[in-house]
Amino acid sequence: MTKLNTQITILFVVLAFACAFVPAFSVEESEAKSLWDTCVVKITPKCALDIIAVVFGNATISDSCCHELFQEGKVCHDTLIKYIADRPTLIAQETQYLKKRDDLWNHCVSISTTA
Fold first, then answer.
1. CA 30 to chain centre
2. Burial track 71-105 (b if 16+ CB lie within 10 A, e otherwise)
3. DSSP structure class, residue 115
4. How far is CA 79 from the centre of its chain?
5. Tens of pLDDT along 46-83?
6. Which residues form the signal peptide (predicted)?
7. How far apart are CA 71 and CA 98, in angstroms?
8. DSSP 50-110
9. Which of 19, 47, 69, 76 has its C-alpha lying 20 to 30 A from 106's C-alpha?
10. Residues sharing a CB contact under 8 Å with residue 111, sequence separation 6 or more, in sequence order
């Protein structure tokens, strides 16, 4: 239960930062809505939390969430994580987050293509 609460807290913090700073960035509102409509809806909320917890924390991901991530696609995964990592409060560690993003993708590809 504590792990779930931590993951939910991480999600809300990341989403709060993302929502608070959307107007200050070059990503236009229509582009952000398009990302949401085409990418985020492809995965369950639990897996979205897990993905965020892996990239922006130290969590692990289940095989089933790896399959969802793989189905979402690399472009969506890369774009959404980059979009979050570009927040002013996170940008200092952007390189680390993007490496974790790529590591997670490679892990999930290996899980999904061997199943």
1. 19
2. ebeeebbebbbebbbbbeebeeeeeebeebbeebb
3. -
4. 9
5. 999 999 999 999 999 999 999 999 999 998 899 889 88
6. 1-20
7. 20
8. HHHHHHHSS----HHHHHHHHHH-HHHHHHHHHHHHTSTTTGGGHHHHHHHHHHHHHHHHH
9. 19
10. 63, 66, 67, 70
Backbone angles phi, psi at 81, to 5 degrees: -65, -40
pLDDT in tens, 78-112: 988 988 888 899 989 999 999 999 999 999 999 98
Kindly state the tokens that stand for 20. 């608070």
Could you give the CA distance from residue 74 to residue 52 in angstroms, rounded to a whole number? 15
